[in-house]
């Protein structure tokens, strides 16, 4: 009887160790990817809040503050380009993420949009430096400023055009870049 009890106790202990090891392995595997998902989500929230701050200044809903404008642009810049691309590297269908697996199949387009986001954010940062007191007329879109608006219109190239367009136009192009990226690379989970 004592031998049977020892064997049962050893089997139970071994099973407990296997189960515990499996639980730990699963927890490690699940936490590796979700950490990246949390970083991406935090970055997206930071960029959204920064864009709302800039938008409020352009709409005169909050007073223009060059330092706050620049800080918002720099926040977007910090979360775009290579930083943004790296967070989505090899993570198509990560649990808890709204990222589409198509990011990996169309990586070149995703990286291009991430870079354009940074290019427009950089133009906004420079605009803050050039306009320490107010968002003057030269920072606002004027009649005829719309580019890329139709089949016959000249297409905007962020690298070529961002620095020369009014800051408000760069802001709208940046938002359009976000919208394009989400439309193509974000899974609608609603």
Q: Quick recap of the structure?
A:
The chain is mainly alpha-helical and 190 residues long. The chain has helices at 2-58, 66-78, 81-87, 102-105, 107-130, 158-161, 167-185.
> Given the structure, what is the number of helices?
7
Report the major sheet. Answer: none
- In the predicted model, the low-confidence regions spanning at least 5 consecutive residues are 10-32
Secondary structure: helix percent: 55-70%
Q: State the distance separating the first and last CA atoms.
A: 60 Å
**How many strands in all?**
0
Tell me, what's the shape?
globular
Our Rg estimate from Cα atoms comes to 24 Å
What average pLDDT do the residues reach?
82
Counting helices, strands and paired strands, the structural category is: mainly alpha
Question: Strand share of the residues?
Answer: under 5%
Helix and strand element order: HHHHHHH
Explain what you see:
The protein has helices at 2-58, 66-78, 81-87, 102-105, 107-130, 158-161, 167-185. The radius of gyration is 24 Å and the shape is globular. The model is unreliable at 10-32 (pLDDT under 50). Helices cover 67% and strands 0% of the residues. It is built from seven helices and no strands. It is mainly α and 190 residues long. Residues 128-152 are annotated as: Disordered. Pfam families: Cytochrom_C_2. InterPro entries: Cyt_c/b562, Cyt_c_II. This is Cytochrome c.
Kindly list the characteristics that best describe this protein.
190 residues, mainly alpha, globular
